[in-house]
Structure formats: C-alpha cells, structure tokens
Amino acid sequence: MSTQTSDYKRITTKTVLAMKQKGEKIAMLTAYDYTTAHLLDESGIDIILVGDSVANVFQGLETTIPVTIDEIIYHTKVVRRAVKRAMLVADMPFMSYQVDIKEAVRNCGRMLKESGAEAVKMEGGKRILPLIEQLVDIGIPVMGHLGLTPQSIYKFGTYEVRAKESEEAKQLVEDAKMLDKAGVFGIVLEKIPDSLAAKVTKAVSCVTIGIGAGSGCDGQVLVTNDMLGMNEQFRPRFVRQYANLSEVMRTAFRSYITDVKAAKFPLKKESY
Predict the structure, then answer these.
(1) Strands 219-222 and 26-30, how do they pair?
(2) Are 219 and 207 in contact (CB under 8 A)?
(3) Which of 72, 85, 180, 270 has its CA 20 to 30 Å from the CA of residue 19?
C-alpha cells in the first residue's frame, strides 16, 4: 500500500472530497465477490464499486439491463463482509430508480440497509435531480454517472464515445454542474473526450471518476476483470491490462487436469 493511501484508516465521502482538494488521485475498481473484495481492500483501493457490470463479467449477459436490485444487494452484501477500509458504492440497476421518486427513495434506502453499501450510483443528469436532492436530504450519499450510460444502450444504440458534438458536450457540463449543486459527492464520467472531462472536473466541487475519459479526472475506475485480463473478448483502448490472468488460469487448469489424469495428484503428502 502506498504512503498516501495508508494515511486513511477509512475512506468516506469526506475523505474523497478532501483528496480532490489536495490533488490526490482516487483509485476505484469493481468487485462482486468476497475474495476479490478482500484483496482490493488489503491492497489499498479507495473505492470499491459493486457495479451492474456484474451482468457482463459475472452473469455473461450482453447488457446491464437485466440486473435486478436483489442481485446487486446480494453481491454487495458479499463484498461488504470483506471490506474494512475502502468506501463501498453500489449501482442502482435499471428501473430501480426511474419510475417514481417514492419507489426510488425506498429502493435506495433498501440498498443501504440490506447490502451495507455506503453510497449508491445512478445514471442521468437533469432528469434525476429531484431524486438526488431528496436522497441527499435524508442522508443517502449519491454518485452520479454521465457520458456513456450503459443502462441507456438501447437508446444510444452504440458504445461509442459520447459528447463529441458541441451541443451534447454543453449539456453534459450543465448536467454535471446540476448534479454537483444537488449534492452528489462524485460523478463517473464514462467514455467522453479527455478535454471535456478535464473541463467538468474543474467546474464541479465533487470528485470526478473517469473511465475512458482521460487523466484530467480526480480519479479512475476500471472493471477489475478487465484490468486483470480475464475478459479476452473485451479489450477497448481505455483498459490497461495489468495482468493476463486468463492465460495463468488456463495453464493452471490444464496442469491440474493432466496431474489428475496421470494419477500425480494427490501425492502422499497431500493425503490424510
């Protein structure tokens, strides 16, 4: 663990906002299981996200749309057991907060009460401002998400970079300012031009976490399975692979199979 991150015994919304003020970058990764969450927390990660990306890397689904609130609660509860230091954020899945404010508030409250998450993340700008204001008012920390919003994939019809045109870029900046004013502690900026992300970061007091949005954000997030090289079918330019676990795992599996077939496992010392 780095000297900087070891200075924080517990990461909270207050901590990450202070990190922005000091110019200290924020590191965020995803987790959906106990073992991964334990290793992330032990390594000094600042924020762990139980993302609706569980649909892609855990459930093998094409989009995040089918994920339910019960599934996110389940995975967050599992991750919670391992996390002692990092801040734990849970995604609010599609249709858990879009119908009406009362239902959305109830679902967000349920997420914190039942899963142990310390904050919720949701996609959208101006449309969800009344909800964010109410959530913040009753004490539920919120992280926003702008740019490429995967829950709107059927509307966009593509995973290409967002806000390349001036009109959409202008709207994104306005949305970020409105979210900031409404009280979010952070905003994920996904797959937008790096110059635009840097502009947003300077325009808001909350933290910005980039994914495919350049180095001008206050922090960065990746899907853990992607950065570990476990997902061979998904290699966009914004994912830096820090390992090639798919090949490591495949080699280990084959070695195990070979040893079992050849009666080389277990040995006497591995038996009772």
Answers:
(1) parallel
(2) yes
(3) 72
- Residue 141: count other Cβ atoms within 10 Å of its Cβ: 21
Specify burial of residue 245 (Cβ count, 10 A radius: 0-12, 13-18, 19+).
middle
One-letter amino acid of 103: E
* Confidence band, pLDDT 50/70/90 cuts, at residue 168: very high
CB count within 10 Å of CB 31 equals: 29
Query: What are the two backbone dihedrals, phi and then psi, of residue 80, each rounded to the nearest 5 degrees?
Result: -55, -40
> Domains of the chain by range and CATH?
3-243 (3.20.20.60)
| CA separation for the pair 239, 106 (Å, rounded) | 35
Q: Is the dihedral of CA 246, 251, 256, 262 positive or negative?
A: positive
Catalytic residues: 190
Q: What is the C-alpha end-to-end distance of the chain, expressed in Å?
A: 39
> What pLDDT digit, counting tens, does each position of 1-10 carry?
554 555 789 9
